[in-house]
Structures are given as structure tokens and as C-alpha cells.
Amino acid sequence: MPSPAPTRRTVLGHLAAAPLALSVPVSLPLSLPVPRARSAGLPSPAGAASVAPVLNDAGRMSPTRVARHVLVPSEPGEARVARLRAELKAAAAEGRPVAVGVARHSMGGQSLVPEGVALTLEGGGVEIDTAARRYRAAAGTRWRQVIPALDAAGLSPAVMQSNNDFGIGSTFCVNAHGWAVPCGPFGTTVRHLRLLLADGTLVACSPTEEPELFAHAMGGYGLFGLVVDLELDAVPNRALAPDLARLPADGFADAFLRTVRTPEVAMAYGRLSVSRSRFLEEAVLVAFRARTGPVPPPEAASLPWLQRLIYRGQTGSEAGKRLRWLAETQVAPHLAPGRVARNALLNVSAAVLANRDPARVDILHEYFLPPEGLAAFLAACRTILPAAGGELLNVTLRHVEADPIACLAYAPQARIAAVMSFSHDRTPEADAAMGAMTRRLIEAAIGLGGSFYLPYRTQAHPDQVRRAYPRADAFAALKRRYDPDLRFRNGLWDAYFAQA
Ligand SMILES: Cc1cc2nc3c(=O)[nH]c(=O)nc-3n(C[C@H](O)[C@H](O)[C@H](O)COP(=O)(O)OP(=O)(O)OC[C@H]3O[C@@H](n4cnc5c(N)ncnc54)[C@H](O)[C@@H]3O)c2cc1C
Asked: Domains of the chain, with CATH numbers?
């Protein structure tokens, strides 16, 4: 992607967009340095690694000794399928479980299994059908590879997370959502995919072809099969211009719903103050509206060091939190006239705000609330968080349209998502306190008809998973039918479903 020197106008545009980047608390080195076997030849993947490596995921709270870690390169078409099949066959011969990963930004061992085979998928090229606004890519392809390819064709991903680090297959497996509006989760933009089942059968899936498998693989954390490649919707890349409005947090849901249903609004999010003096009481609503005329280049965000300084400066500092809120609400609006490309807003790495302090942990939480329940949830948070001593660095609010497909749907109806980022000491005591607080927050969300997101720490009580995801037991039962030997296993299965 070309990256010309930023002009004053583009710097202003990115500063206006900076609250977005500030919103996405980020991780973290993803795995310990380990010996990795590159899956280079068939048919002997098992012999490739001699030392049992220890892998980790974002947050570095899930160190897991695996039997071997295999990097699976992206190869054209059927060679990729043959290689993946050989890895599955070798694991079966050894009686080992398999867990697949791409960026391993999940935070609770969702991409890892003890004493198993960890497959890390690499990305490949992107085939674009510009007229149909569709593209196809291997599951290990990352958003930072997809966006430049689409950009050259005047297109942009329809739905993705707020960072470009993740794999597209994993995005389907967690059924991620983004901040483009009005949109359902990522799975609703998947037209077709190929899934390799535990017995080596390759199945073509879509909402209409093998719909049962599609619905269980979507947000199914790789437990039904290995996603090989996907065909996805794209949308035109656009020039967008931001505007910001301040409002009381209790009035946010109504204003947000009106905003996301305004036709020219293409992307939108909210943010809440986290300083003690206005804890979760003030909100800012940022909407990016489509503009006619040329689309600016997809430059990377300007002044990442400033975004980072302001964001990380909040840790343990009331003054830092106030300064950050001032930057969001008072400074950014005056810098708002910039136009920015949709692709530039999406092409942001999580590394910009990453925690680099080995003594601390950044942990994400996410709760999905019926819009009419948001104010009550925030009221509950105002009680629960200070009592638990949680160091809250950020709350971003997003809108997710209803997901009628996924078995484990976190948004069976339209929801407002509250994405929270906490920082805590890297100690067992702090982790236990975070777990207790997490269960209280989940209880508050469930009590209001909401749910919580599954790619983060697995600190929920299994009963809470069943109440938030009423089809959880049916999900586990069907998984056992498709995969009776539990070839595909990971930390999410072990924590929440293994006993079902
Ligand atoms: C900083 C940060 C920002 C985030 N922002 C957002 C956001 O804006 N919106 C949102 O919805 N989520 C967000 N998340 C959560 C994120 O979407 C998930 O953690 C996602 O899993 C990350 O992708 P990954 O490539 O790291 O997946 P991994 O952690 O590598 O894998 C995730 C899951 O998918 C499975 N899997 C991966 N690839 C395959 C495959 N090919 N076949 C079968 N199974 C597979 C894995 O086994 C695992 O269960 C964020 C997380 C972080 C850390």
C-alpha cells in the first residue's frame, strides 16, 4: 500500500480519527519464542519438531506446552488442502488433538491445546471479483494483506475487527464484529467457505449449502473443522468525514440507534469517560459520514506515538485519564475537517497501543446489551468496577445488527457492544480478582437480556455460558457427532463445553 508523506490535511484527518485508535486496547507479544516446524513436505508433519514448544496468546496468560507447532504456508488450491489433511492424519495417528490459530490474539487458549498439535496458518493472495464485489482468500490471510489488495480495486472489507492483525478464517471462527454500520457480525458477510472436517472430508458450506455446519462453524472457534478458504463480501472504499457529539452516557443508546440508521453514516462508535470524577457518565459519539469526491489514500494512522502516549499514560493515573478524555472531547472536534478513506480507518495495527510492560496485563472484555438495557448495565458497572478495583482504560461502544445464523450467536437481536479494556498486575491475585469481577459483569449483562464475548479470558462460570448462549449444549452435542474423537479441541472447549 503506498504511504506518501502525510500532508497537513491528512494529519488532521487522522487526528480526528485518533479516538478510534485510542479505543482499541491492544496486545501484546503473542507467543514465546519457540521452535516452529514449517510444514514443508508431505506426508511427515509429525517428525518436524523435536522440542515441545510452549505457545501463548494475547495477554500471555495461557502458556501451553504443545507437542509441536507447525507453520502451514499458504499454497494454491488443492496443495493446501492436501497439506492440512496430512497434518490432521498425523495428529490422529498419534492420538493428539489439534488447535488452529492465525494471530493468536484470543486471550484464553482458544487457539491452543495442551500436548496437541498447534497449526498456524499463513496467508496467501486475494482473488477479487470487482464487478460482484466479492473476494476469496485463504483462511490464514490477515486483514493487513486483504486491505491493500481490495484498495487497489476500489473496494474495502464489508465487516472486520477494528484492527488489521487478525486472520480472516479466525475472524469467522469468532464471528467478529466491527464498527461499520449498520452491519451484523462478520459471518453475515461470508458467502462461501471450505471446511476440512476431523475425518479429512472437505465440505463446501454457505448459508444455504450445508447450513447446519455453516451455522456451527460461524463463531464456533474451530471446533467443527478447519476453515481452508473463504469467499467474502466487499463494499466500495469511500471518503468519510467524522463528526463528534458529546452526550450523557444514559442517553447514548437512543442517539446511537438514530445515528447508525442514518443512510450516509458508514461507520460509528461511542466512547465513555473512565476518569473517577465522571466514571462512565459522559459519552462521545463519533460518526463517519460518506463524502463525494476522490477517496484519500489509505495511509497508516499519523502520530501513532501520540496516540500511544495518551492511551498508555492513563494507567494508574487519574490525570492521565482526564487528559485522554480532554483529547477525545475537546481537541479532536477542532481537528475534525479531515477526510479519511474507509480503508485507512480499518488498516490499523493493534501494536500501536500495545502494552509493553511485562509486569502488567491488558485484558479485553465485551458485553452485548439490548439497546434499552445499556443504561442499566452502565449503572451496574459504576458499582461493580470501583468495588473490584479494576483499572479500566477504555470503553468503546459499537452497534451490531441481529445475527440470525450462528448457533452461538452473541447478538440474536440488535445489540450495543461495550468493549472494555482493563490493565492489571501480572499476579495470580490480580487475575483472580479480574475473574470475580468478570463473573459479576456477565451476571449484570445476562440479567438485562445480554451476553458476553467468548474470545477473551475463559473466566465465566460454565452456567453463565449456557444462560448467555442458550444453544450451548446443542452446540457441544453436535460437535461430538461431527468430531467424536475430539480431534479439534482448544481452551474454550475445555473450559466451557467438555463437561456437556
Ligand atoms: C487488540 C484486539 C482488538 C480486537 N478487536 C476486536 C474487534 O474490533 N471486534 C471483534 O469482534 N473482536 C475483536 N477482538 C477479538 C478478535 O477478533 C479475536 O481474538 C480473534 O480471534 C483474533 O483473530 P486471530 O487471528 O488472532 O485468531 P486466533 O486467536 O488465532 O484464533 C481464534 C479462534 O479461531 C480458531 N481458528 C482460527 N483460524 C481457524 C481456521 N482456519 N479454522 C478453524 N479454526 C480457526 C482458533 O482455533 C481459535 O479458536 C480483538 C482482540 C484484540 C486482542
From this structure: 8-25+238-461 (3.30.70.2520), 37-121 (3.30.43), 126-236 (3.30.465.10)
Higher-scoring residue by pLDDT: 40, 371? 371
For residues 198-223, average pLDDT:
98
Percent of the chain with pLDDT over 90: 81
Distance 15 CA to ligand 1 centre (A): 27
Nearest ligand 1 atom, CA 350:
1
Closest residue to atom 48 of ligand 1, CA basis? 111
Cβ of 31 closer than 6 Å to ligand 1, yes or no, is: no
Cβ atoms of 120 and 145 closer than 8 Å: no
Which pLDDT does position 32 carry in this prediction? 36
Counting other chains too, the contacts that 441-449 makes at CB distance below 8 Å and 24 or more residues apart are: 441/365, 441/367, 441/380, 441/381, 441/384, 442/367, 442/468, 444/367, 444/377, 444/380, 444/381, 444/384, 445/367, 445/368, 445/369, 445/377, 448/369, 448/370, 448/373, 448/376, 448/377, 449/369, 449/370, 449/373
Q: Can you give the pLDDT at residue 307?
A: 86
23 lines ligand 1 (CB under 6 A): no
**Is it the case that residue 48 has pLDDT exceeding 50?**
no
The Cα 137–Cα 233 span in angstroms is 12
Name the grid cell of 311: 492511551
**pLDDT tens, residue by residue, 423-459:** 999 999 999 999 999 999 999 999 999 999 999 999 9
